[in-house]
Amino acid sequence: MNDCIFCKIISGDIASKKIYEDELCYAFHDINPQSEVHFLVIPKEHIPGAKDIDESNSAVVAHIFKVIAELSCEMQLNSYRVITNCGEGAGQTVKHLHFHVLSGENLSEKLV
Ligand code: AMP
Ligand code: ZN
Question: Which of 73, 81, 90, 102 is most enclosed, with most CB atoms within 10 A?
Answer without folding.
Answer: 102
